[in-house]
Specification:
With 80 residues, this protein is an alpha+beta fold. The protein contains one helix and four strands; from the N terminus they run ββββα. It has a domain of 54 residues. The longest helix has 12 residues. The N and C termini lie far apart (32 Å). 10% of the residues are buried.
Length: 80
């Protein structure tokens, strides 16, 4: 599988990663951001804590997660 595209410019040494916020984020602070990182991994973080922890996934792990989300495998974790 190829490297996922996130609609963002890859990070450069000067700029750092270009974080993309989910369009489903709300003004109440429930915000998730994703970026392509310089080591080839995919980063996920809470936008309320931009200096906090970043979850890192290999492209294959990210593809598996997205596939599971598309198939509804994680729907049971939603409060809706």
């Amino acid at each position: 599988m190829g490297t996922p595209t996130l609609g963002s410019t890859p990070e450069t040494p000067d700029s750092g990663p270009n974080w993309v916020k989910s369009s489903l984020s709300f003004s109440n602070g429930n915000c998730v951001e994703v970026a392509s990182l310089s080591d080839g991994s995919i980063g996920v973080r809470n936008s309320r804590d931009s200096e906090g922890a970043v979850l890192r996934f290999t492209p294959d792990e990210w593809d598996a997660f997205l596939g599971g989300a598309r198939n509804g495998e994680f729907d049971r974790f939603s409060r809706k």
